[in-house]
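Worked example 3 (structure in, sequence out).
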């Protein structure tokens, strides 16, 4: 059984998130969704307006039939990946830069596959937040 891992905040859950999970399931039988820790978000982005607590976001994502397991993480890095039993890491097409190069290299060195998934056009949490402030 192949296990796929994806990361996110999932504070303003939307259709793009669901479609991400559906894309993940095309690559593996078992979907692990990592939800970012609210305390970490607030420590590094104090201006961030987190709508739901970590526990509430975990509860919402756990309720989805498509999701097999939900875990909490601080930041996407090698130290976090080392704690998780997975075979495939799902990254977004926009996940680029040094940090993502490091985790991609770690995955390659440890026999983990990396897949790049496309965003759902026209929908993003940042846009939803902007419209709500409107």
């Amino acid at each position: 059984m192949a296990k796929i891992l994806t990361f996110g905040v999932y504070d303003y859950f939307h259709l793009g998130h669901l479609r991400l999970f559906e894309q993940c399931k095309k690559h593996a039988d078992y979907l692990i969704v990592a939800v970012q820790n609210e305390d970490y978000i607030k420590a590094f982005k104090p201006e961030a307006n987190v709508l739901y607590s970590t526990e509430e976001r975990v509860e919402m994502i756990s309720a989805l039939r498509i999701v097999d397991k939900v875990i909490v993480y601080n930041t996407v890095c090698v130290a976090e990946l080392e704690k998780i039993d997975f075979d495939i890491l799902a990254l977004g097409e926009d996940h680029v830069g040094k940090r993502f190069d490091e985790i991609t290299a770690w995955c390659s060195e440890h026999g983990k596959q990396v897949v790049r998934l496309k965003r759902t056009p026209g929908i993003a949490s940042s846009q939803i937040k902007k419209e709500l402030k409107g």
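Notes: The helical segments are 15-25, 38-44, 54-62, 78-81, 98-109, 125-133. Residues 98-109 form the longest helix (12 residues).
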